[in-house]
Amino acid sequence: IKFEDLPVTPYFGGGVGVVFMTALNHKMDVNGVVAGTPTTYTTSTGTGQNTSLALQAIVGLERKVYENLTLFIEYKFLAFLDVKFAYGDEPTTSIPPVAGGSNSQNDFMANQILSAGVKWSF
To answer: Does any domain span residue 1?
Structure first.
């Protein structure tokens, strides 16, 4: 494919990697009624960490304005596979105390990013 006559240059790419994620200050409250009184129990607090497989795909267009100056627009898709967080197992400070802990799991999480900008090459 020849792109010599186009006013823009298309590009694409992809990659595989590892993502290190941290969920800070996680808190889960459960609202209920005990003996006719509304009550909130905190079932977990804390920080969870996870390491997962990451995938990325990118496609974009760029236009040369001057020798070192380029304008671009691109779409990026980031995917994270098998994301799991576990948040503590200590009793909570609720009255009465509740056995703490909670987990979250996502088989697939994704971010879609559309960006545009100016690129200066040295």
So the answer is: no
